Every structure is written in C-alpha cells, then in structure tokens.
Amino acid sequence: MKFIGLPFALGVLSLWCVDADSTSNVTWIIVPVGNASVSKQLKNESVVIMPKWTIMPRDFDAEPKKKDDGPLKCGSHEMFPGQSVIIQSQNYPDRYPNNYQCKWIFKVTSTSSRVSISCNAFWLKGCKKSSVDVEGGKVRRRYCGKKSKISVKSSDNSMTVLFTTTSSKKRSTGFSCQVSSTEVQESPEATSSETSASPSTPPSPITLAFTTLTAGEKSCQPCGTKHRVTRIVGGRETDMNEYPWQVAIVVGGTNQVFCGGALLNSGVVLTTASCVIKIEQSGKATEVLVGAHNLSKPSSTQQRISIYYGGYFPEYNPKTFDHDVGVLWLVDNADLSDAVKPACLPDGSKDYSGYDAIVTGWGSQREGGLASMVLNEVVVPTMNSSVCNDYYGGLITRNMLCAGYEEGGRDACSGDSGGPLVVQENGRWILVGITSWGIGCGRPNFPGVYVKVSNYVDSLLTVMTGYGENNLCKGATRTTTTTIGTATITTTTLPPITGGCRCGRRNPGTRIVGGVATRVHEYPWQVGLTNKNLKRPYCGGSIISDEWILTAAHCVRGVIVSNIIVVIAEHNWGTTTDTSYTNRRSVITSIIHPNYDTKTQNNDVALLQLSTPITFTSDNKIAPVCLPTKQTAYDNVEAIVTGWGTTSSGGKQTYELNEVAIPTMSNNECRKSYGSYITGNMICAGLPEGGKDSCQGDSGGPMVTGSDSAGKFMVQIGVVSWGYGCAYSHYPGVYTRVTNYLSWISDKTSGSKTCPRL
C-alpha cells in the first residue's frame, strides 16, 4: 500500500472556501502545523530565440547550406518574447551612405516584455552629421561619435531605433547591434499586499467565478506495440529538476521523506489527505523540499520551507481513501525558477484515461524495499475506471484514477504518496492524479490508484487564488475545431500564457535533443540506414511490412540503391553484446515520392524494398509500426521521435537509440515560425521553449503516437524531415505527414505482409 490511513483526532477545525460557481460550500478541514511567513523574490528567466532559419534536413549527407537573410531591414517588426535579431547600418562594416535614414520599430507580442539594444562596436562621425536615436517607452537616448559599447533597455514592450546621416563627406563604419526581447516577471513586493495571506491567520474565505475556457504471420505480435522492460517500482532516475513541481515532505531538519506533493503555485502544495493527517498526528515539525533531486547531496536549487497549515476534505474516508486530497500552505513562498515551478491543473470536464502518464517520487523501488535518495520516474498508462474497478472488486470510486500495467512491474510505492501523476498536453504537463493507494507495489492486475484531480479543480483554484503568488497556472482550456478535407476534428488547446508564469514545463535533459536512451527493442520497428563504409546510420526508417521500410526522400535521393544497408533490431552501435537480434538487409528497390521537392522538402517520403523479407518475432523484438487513420489530424497530441542522430545542433552522433516526447501542433501554429514553407503534407512538433527535437542523423525516422484509448499500440504519424537547427525555441521540427500518403504506401507495398492492430 502507498499509505494506510488510521483513525484520527482533529486538532483545530476551521471551515472555509466557497466553490467556483458559488452554488455550494466546499469545506476544508484545517490542521495547524506551523507559524510565521516571509515573502520571497521571484526569479526571471529569459529564453533566446533564433531569428533566421533555413530548411535543415535531419541527416548528414543531404544538409543544404544555411540561408543567410542578413540583418533585419528597416520597418516595423513584431517580436516574440525571448527573440533576438541583428540590425546594422547600411553597408556595414564598410562606410555608411550620405543623406540616409532608416527606422526600425519593434513591438513584442507580450506586454510584460522589454526590448533591449546592445552594440559592441559603434562608430559614427560627429553628432551633427550622423546619429542613432533610441526610444522605448519613457527611455530616450541619442548615440553618436565613437563608442566601445552601448546598451539600453526600454520601459515597455516597444522600441524605435532611428539612424540618420547628412551630406557630410566624413563617414565611418557605423554599427552592428543586437535587439532582444525579454520576459519580465512582476516583483512580488509590488503585489504582496494583495496576494499573500497574513501569517497570523489561516487563509480567508474567498468566492470566485471561473470559466473553463491485414493479418501477418502467426508469430507476429500486434503492430505498433512498444516493448518495455521492467526496471518508484520499475522506474529510473530523473534528470536534475526535470519535474520542477515535485515536492518532498520531510521531517523537519532532515531529508527523511514520508510523502510527496506538487506545487500549485509559490505558496500551495497539493498532496493527499492521508499525508496531511500523518503530519498532524506526528506532532513533529514538518518541512517541504522544493527543487530537490539527490537528498544525500542537496543542490543549489533545493529550498527547505516550513509548512504553515494543512487542509483536507472532510469527506475523506480513511478506510476507502475516497476524497484523499489535501493541501499544504507554506510559511514562505517558494522562489520560482526553471528548477522550481508549478504543474498545471487539468480540465475539470475531461476524462484523462488512455494517456501515458508519469509518476515521480522518492519512494521504495520495490515492495518492502528502502526509500530512494534520488527522485525517480516511471511511465504508466492511465486506464478506464470500470476496468480498474474490476481489478479491485468495486473499491474504485468516481474520485479515483488508475494507472499501471496488467502485467505489473511498474508502479508507485511506499513513500510516493501525495506525489504527482502528470500527462503531457499541448507542450505542458498536466497534474491529473495524486498518488493515493494500491494493493502492494507493481503487482499484476493491481494498478496504482490516484486521486482524480479533475474533480477538485474549482476548489483548488480557489485555494491558489487565496494564498501564494503566481496564480496564472490554471490549465484552463478552450475547444477549437479544425477542418481537414471532409473530416472535422475537435481538439482541446491551451490559451497562450502571459506574464512570467510557466506552469507544467518539464525541464529537458541534455541527452535525439533533450531525450533519453530507449530500452533495448523498446521501439521494434526502428531501423537505421547505413552503408559498408559507415559505422553508424546516416538516416533512420521504420518497418511497415515484412518487405518495406518507410523513410524520407532526401535520405535516399541520389544514393545508389545497392549501397544502402538497412540495419534491423539494433540498439547500441558501439557494442555487439546488447542484443542478438540485429541483422542487416540490402535494398533492391527505392521509391521516392514523384512530387518530392528538393528545395522545400514537400512530399519528403520514400519507400525501400528489402532483398529478403523480415521474420517478425513472437517476443515483439522485431515488429512493424501501425499506420495511422487517414481522417485524423493528430494535432496537439503527444508524440515520440526516435533515432541515433546528434544530441545537439552540430554535435556528435549517439551510439544508443534515443527517444524524445514532444507535442504536435496545428499547421497554422507552425506557420508562425516557418511561414508558407509549411504545406499540408507536413506536421510540426516541438516545445515553444525548445530543448527537445530530432536532429541531424534522425532524418527518415519515425514520429509515433498512441492510437487506442489505452495507449497500447503506436501509429506512425510523421517522418523526420527538416527544421531550423535543432531544438531552437519557437522553431519546431517538421515531419512528413504520413496520413497524406496512405494510398500511395498501400499501392506500392501491395502483396507484402504486416501485423494486425490489437
């Protein structure tokens, strides 16, 4: 069991809080656990955006030369928060012309941003003959003559730069400057009187209104099934601060974790009622650790904060664990940064079954084992409540969400109670569950049971608004409709975030870009394209039938067919001991789509026919990927890209197969970065802040997503094609949209064998 509640005697009882629509009172039982309060300064982290781009295929041999658009031309320009551009005097570094005037007008899309200009070299002749005037809000500066460096920042989200010269014969080289926009977070001192609760009294009652904005061979396993090994229970260590909302609840002055939690804002932690009661009954001082990872070696990001009050639903039943939801109010506001930030609350009207979710904690890694000193993560699929109820004989209520595998092996365990269960949606991580209970840890047919957070959104929003700072992270949603051909697809998207708040942003690691190594044969359809002279693949591909490989056109265009070698069931190219399944096939036919455009990468798709058919294995070590549904847009879904490409733009190629999870987006959204280069035959995927992407060497490889409601099999929705750099902010990866080529693939691969879906 994660935690077994015991009968309890209440300390101080206080009832407060009114629900969102003001139609019924939502009551919390308040437990006093501390005192005093100190407000903290919030940090501001800026993101750098690359201003110019070029189509960059994700292989080594077909990479074109980078397009150079030069410095920004005179005129009006809209900037994204975090973007940087270059402006120069005409003819720089040669002499600028006479009787010349150029005006640049910049405006950032976010009103909370500021614009700065920085020039390392500045040389204009006499102030009467030439000058640069900078105006940004209340800031006004004039520059002329010779200066080693200048730097100025606007007081609002705009800046005008005016360069003027006269008819003087005396001219110089002018200037080259960088103009940047940075996001500014409001200092808590400015609003602390409005947003911070008094340290001498519990939070006050608040009333608010919210708007929720062909069958294969006998031995063939179902196509598109990921192969995961058993390795929290069956988990692995996270990257440092990869899940920045994670909180450890510890005995005061120690690193002894007895529960977990998740930051909702700078002053409120979400956990379970059972954990709150455990704190109250212990009689010991209790603290939370935020920004923690290795408890035996505290990092500079770790903060230790005392707990002020705890609260939980009075409907909580310690025997059945129904309504097992609690909150903690912190003495000090957490100091928010990239390493410490809140998770997003879910859409209260949405069912989150059928998602691949991630649960994190410092709990035992096996039933009856010792707690971990490092934060661990495990991926578990959420499931339909009725299915889970069958496993547990009717003990699952409407306030519970289950996640796990029928065969067991991966689960939360003792010490993980109160910790977060999150899913990725539209590039942000949504807190859908709180680790609550279960039979044992990782046992077959007994998935973990979590509090269904979506049932408590209105009440939690009220709690957040009444205490703590940075209350923009509500995860509110709106519904949009997209028409593709004759099919209408309804999707749920998140509105743009304004201000400094960035909830639900999982921090990428440094290990594909921002990804992690896969387990051996985890993606049994992945292949590498190489030749007899290469030690590693120059492109990737995927098995779609026993005779055919799907890849990118630019990977095989101009390549002699007999020189292509397809390597199947490989994992680590640096060793021969990781698997005995690896084998190589030569290629007899290469079919490039007839409308492939080498300049725009439109229709960047190709098929390779193998010299001998593949034998699919009964243990799923070699298997095809499923093809997608033609009528589905696959916008705003979590996708996974795999490959052996470089782990940074211009970096070294990896030996091990890597994977990265990234959200797809609509083509209209992608055109904000790439303009008309994005055609209907492409699909884009990436995070706004960058950090995760495919890269050189990954071209031709698959982008897949879960298709069925339980996420048990994967469909290939994209082929790695091109992009500007790798993992740059606001420049997602671009993939060939597989749904547009299903008829072409079916026609060309007719007569070959594949595997059925489930």
- How far is the N terminus from the C terminus? 32 Å
Work out the number of β strands.
39
Query: What is the tally of helical segments?
Result: 7
Structural class: mainly beta
Short description:
By secondary structure, this protein is mainly beta.
Task: Summarize the structure in words.
The chain is mainly beta and 758 residues long. Helix content is 7%, strand content 31%. The strands form seven sheets. Strands 13-14-15-18-17-16 form a six-stranded antiparallel barrel. The chain has a six-stranded antiparallel barrel with strand order 19-20-21-24-23-22. It has a six-stranded antiparallel β-barrel with strand order 34-35-36-39-38-37.
Per-chain topology:
Blueprint: E1 29-32, E2 75-79, E3 84-88, E4 101-108, E5 113-123, E6 130-136, E7 139-143, E8 146-147, E9 150-153, E10 158-165, E11 174-183, H1 188-195, E12 236-237, E13 246-251, E14 257-263, E15 268-271, H2 273-282, E16 286-290, E17 303-312, E18 326-330, E19 356-361, E20 376-383, H3 385-391, E21 400-403, E22 420-425, E23 428-437, E24 448-452, H4 457-466, E25 478-484, E26 487-493, E27 516-517, E28 526-530, E29 539-543, E30 548-551, H5 553-556, E31 565-568, E32 583-592, E33 606-610, E34 638-643, E35 658-665, H6 667-674, E36 682-685, E37 702-706, E38 714-722, E39 733-737, H7 742-748
Parallel strand pairs: 2-4
Antiparallel strand pairs: 1-17, 3-11, 4-10, 5-8, 5-9, 5-11, 6-7, 6-10, 12-20, 13-14, 13-16, 14-15, 15-18, 16-17, 17-18, 19-20, 19-22, 20-21, 21-24, 22-23, 23-24, 25-26, 27-35, 28-29, 28-31, 29-30, 30-33, 31-32, 32-33, 34-35, 34-37, 35-36, 36-39, 37-38, 38-39
